[in-house]
Structures are given as structure tokens and as C-alpha cells.
Amino acid sequence: MESVFTFLFPLREYPRAVSLMLLVLRVLFGALLMWHGMTKLVNVETAAEDFPNPLGLGHRLSFYLVVFAEVICSAAVIMGAFYRLALVPIIFSMAVALFVVHHGHEFAAKELALIYFVVFLLLFFMSAGAYSLDNIIAKRLNSARLAKVDELSDIKSANYSSSEG
């Protein structure tokens, strides 16, 4: 269970400039993708019926899954909340757009999906940075873990001392 928490909430110390860069990238690309998703909601009925169905899930379900990735998951990325978990649907939807939906199209048709795919994939391998909700959670989890380790070492020291006497 601890490895899941470590993966979801990595406690990485970056220089301030790197954390600021991660914040700017999260906010900038998250907001751009969120706007891209929100424009799909203007004419939901028409957009859902005309939406590509690359995975055979149906036009409407495919539409709502992409809107979820582009709007809800982008909001989580902006806040740095459940960052890596939120990035998975975004990266997946951009990969589908890039490699399936726009397969065989000219580069201009795939360019935006490629940019989002690369940026969000790179962000996935970084943590959300110091200015994120995940960092707050990671620090709390780490301090709780350290408190538990201190408690166990105190118990072991007490047991060792009592066995010597």
C-alpha cells in the first residue's frame, strides 16, 4: 500500500525554479486542455453524436470520456491534486487521438494532440512540484511514516534496554 502512496504522492524536492516551472506548465497546459474540452460542451447533443468512436465504445460514451479527461482531469492537474492519476486519462485520450483518430492524416491534424501528449507524458514522470496539493499530501504521509518509524525504534530500544538488565 505504501508503494501506491509513493507513486501517487511522490515527495521530491526540486529547486524553487523547477517547482515554479512545473506550476506554470500545469496551469498553462491544464487550462488550455480544459478550455478545449469545455468548447465541446457548447452543443453537447450534436457534438456527442458526431464524435469519433475509435475504441468501439459508442460515440456518446467516447465523447463523455474525452470531456472527463479534458475538463475534470485537467482541473486536477492544474491544482496538482491526484496528479498522476489525473494524467492517465489525459495521456490515454491524447494517444488515441494521435495514433488512432488522426492516423493517416496530415501533420497539422495531429499537431495539437502530439503537443498535449508529449507535455503531459513528460509531466507524468515529474511530480507536481512544491506548489501542489499532492506535495501537501506527500509531506503529511511522509511525516506520519517517519513518526511511525520513530515509534518503532523507541519500542525496539526499550525492549533492548529491558533485555540487558
Through-space gap between termini: 38 Å
Specify the overall morphology: elongated
Sheet having the most strands? none
Mean pLDDT: 91
**H/E series:** HHHHHHH
Query: Uncertain spans, ≥5 residues at pLDDT below 50?
Result: none
Q: What integer value in Å does the Rg equal? A: 22 Å
- What share of residues are in beta strands? under 5%
Number of E-state strands: 0
Number of helices: 7
If you had to describe this structure to a student in words, what would you say it looks like?
By secondary structure, the chain is mainly α. The chain has 7 helices and no strands. The longest helix is centred in the C-terminal third of the chain and has 32 residues. The radius of gyration is 22 Å and the shape is elongated. The chain has one domain. The model has no long low-confidence stretch (mean pLDDT 91). 79% of the residues lie in helices and 0% in strands.
Can you give keywords for this protein?
about 160 residues; elongated
Give a brief description.
The protein is an all-alpha fold. The protein has one domain. The chain has helices at 2-8, 16-40, 44-50, 59-79, 83-101, 107-125, 133-164.
Topology overview:
Blueprint: H1 2-8, H2 16-40, H3 44-50, H4 59-79, H5 83-101, H6 107-125, H7 133-164
Helix pairs in contact: 2-4, 2-6, 3-4, 4-5, 5-6
